[in-house]
Amino acid sequence: MRRVIGRWFGRATGPVLAGLFFAFGSMAPAAAQQAERHSGGIFGSEPTQFGAPIAWGVGLQPSGGVVKTAISDLNSLVLWIIIAITVFVMALLGWCIWRYREKANPTPSRTSHNTVLEVAWTVIPVLILVVIAIPSFRLIYYQDRPRDADLTINVQGRQWYWHYEYPDHGNFAFDSRPIPQEDLQPGQLRNLSVDEPLVVPVGATVRVLTTGQDVIHSFFIPSLGIQKYSIPGRTLETWFRADREGVFYGQCNQICGLNHWFMPIEVRAVPPDAFQAWVEQAKQKYARADGSPPAIAAAPAQGLQMAETRR
Ligand SMILES: [Cu+2]
């Protein structure tokens, strides 16, 4: 008597599929344009020169560069898909409760199979997953490595500080540690500001090579869309580009021991000439007494050798 749901689904499948394709097709370029102008969070926030968490912030941090913008785009796409699915399921549930209540439907249907319905609820979720998978894989490969890097920075996680090296800009290296709370100057952030920040030129594609000296750390700067493990005995590659001047903060986000909290990251994106000036000054400041290049990979190699000998 009442195979309404089955018939309804049969009739609705075509329009729903067409609607899904149309909606996602038109949404993707719109989202990309949106991300160019704004960035980040659920409600879209203005570009900022300050990449750091804020009190009561909701959503992602505003984007400071291209990789983060691409991440925010995918986040928005998936969020809207989730919203559409939630609204649809809630509406269907409400309608079923109302339409098939005991009073309105005293003799329930004994239908146990409906081919059209079963095909629909298999095929539609598969299509939704395909719609999510395509931009998702594109993003993974986009983040993977830079096409043409302007600059390489070696990053080494150590218990418990960061060690940075600029191999193609004078080959100097330095350590970076947080500023103690009692020494904070106005404008500096507790547990985020550091004594020796990373400095990069605005608009430059920065290749980041990560290694770990002792345990696994992770180099993570939300507003620049970069997160990479730093693993002893292994070099991993990723990249970022700061599209505007500013200070972008991050932290080690792999639990790495007692002072895991003690590993903030501060990146200063400055105009190219200011970067050159900083490089000249840094070459003097971080010069080694014997003039030898910093041996960034020496420590994990030694560690491995020791492990070998012990075996
Ligand atoms: Cu760490």
Instruction: Please state roughly what percent of the residues sit in beta strands, choosing from under 5%, 5-15%, 15-25%, 25-35%, 35-45% or over 45%.
Output: 15-25%
Flag low-confidence runs: 1-6, 27-45, 296-311
User: What's the N-to-C terminus distance?
Assistant: 76 Å
CATH topology of the largest domain: Immunoglobulin-like
Secondary-structure element series: HEHHEEEEEEEEEEHH
Q: Can you list the ligands bound to this structure?
A: copper (II) ion
Specify the CATH architecture of the largest domain. Sandwich
Primary descriptors:
disordered N terminus, five-stranded mixed beta sheet, 2 domains, about 300 residues, Immunoglobulin-like, alpha/beta, disordered C terminus, binds copper (II) ion, 11 strands, six-stranded mixed beta sheet
Overview of the molecule:
This protein is an alpha/beta fold and 311 residues long. It folds into 2 domains: 2-109, no CATH class; 151-288 and 306-310, Immunoglobulin-like. 40% of the residues lie in helices and 20% in strands. The chain has helices spanning 4-37, 66-99, 115-144, 272-285, 298-310, and strands spanning 50-51, 151-158, 161-166, 172-176, 198-201, 206-212, 217-221, 226-230, 236-240, 246-252, 264-270. Strands 1, 5, 7, 8, 10 and 11 form a 6-stranded mixed sheet that branches. Strands 4-3-2-6-9 form a 5-stranded mixed sheet, with no helix packed on it. The protein is elongated, with a radius of gyration of 26 Å. The structure holds copper (II) ion. Copper (II) ion binds next to loops.
